[in-house]
Structures are given as C-alpha cells and as structure tokens.
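User: Sequence in, structure out. Go.
Assistant: Echoing your sequence, followed by the structure tokens.
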Amino acid sequence: MKISIVVTQEEHFKFAQEICDTIESSALLRGTGIAKRTPEYIQKKMSNGDAMIALADGKFAGFCYIESWQHGKFVAHSGLIVHPDYRNLGLAKKIKSKVFDYSLKKYPEAKIFGITTGLAVMKINSDLGYKPVPFSELTTDPSFWNGCKTCTNFEILQSKQNKMCLCTGMLYDPKEKQKTPPRHPFNEAVLSRLKKIKQALFLNKILSFVFLFKI
C-alpha cells in the first residue's frame, strides 16, 4: 500500500467533513475531551497550506493541521488523526514528523507546543524532542484557549485559569540545543501514572464541591 503525505490544497476540501467526523468519533471512542472543528475551519487551514493530509490511493488516510499564535511566536499541531482503516501502520508518527519538519521551515522562530491526553501522541512528541511543561510556558493567546470550549473538560480548564487541565502540555523550543536521543525520553508508565493522579485530584475537588453545595 502506497500512502503519500502532502501539504493540503483546495483539491482536498472534499475530505473536510470526513476529517471532522473521524476526529469526533475517535474522541468518543477513547472517552476523551476534544476541541471540535468545523469543515469550514479545516478548509481554511487547507487553503492556507497549514495542514498535511495522508492519502492512500486517493482516499483519506490521515490528517494534521498547524495553528500559529502571538504573531508566529508559538505554533501548535492540532487534529492529528488517522482513519480507522489505516491504523496500526505507524502513520500517525509519520504525519506528525512531516508536519513537525514543515513547521520548522515555515515558522523557523516559533516554539512548537501541544496539549494532549493521549499517551500515543505524548510518545510521538517526546521522540521529536518535545518536553512536558506547565501551561504557563505555552501561548497566552486567549484565542487558543477559547478553542477548548467544545472540549468536555473546558470547565476544569476555566476553574484553573487556563493553568492546568487533564491535558499535558508539551513544548519544543528550536533555540534550545537538541540532543539525540531527546533530553526528556518518554516514559509511558510515568506519564500514565501522572495522568491518573491528575484525574484523581480533579475528581476529589469536584466531590468536595458537591458535598459542600448539598450542605
């Protein structure tokens, strides 16, 4: 099977709805929060050359797009998705690596960051040289955080003044001297445990609030 990964153009508009549907269904299947995007938003990214799509014999196989914040000071990769028919082929990592290299060329001065609850994405990011960071090191642009409104965890993010959520923040600074392998190797067991601790802490706070409210 030959799968090509290319920078998007208007000819790829026809895949926008399928991309949105695949992203949403994948999030529901995993039981995770997600910031929803419309087909029109995806098409805008496509026309600006701020996205990459994977095609297998002309069929949609995977996708990821780029967002820039604070006049190009920060760049984020969003909507990374692989169609169910093409999973378990290492395609997500290939797409992410392509988008990462493309971002370094298009936005050479930008810090590349992301927030995610997915361990698979964390591992990919770590392999590329990202490091886990507090949200305070990410963009302060309210437009980015407003994009989380459609996520099921948005109330948690708001209650923490955009400083913490169930997502983990990760950052790649091109100005830092990178080493091979990355200075912050991925440890799935540790990050999984941290994720569970986060969830437990938030659950305890919510239960405490409900208890006080009933009183």
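User: And one key feature?
Assistant: The radius of gyration is 18 Å.
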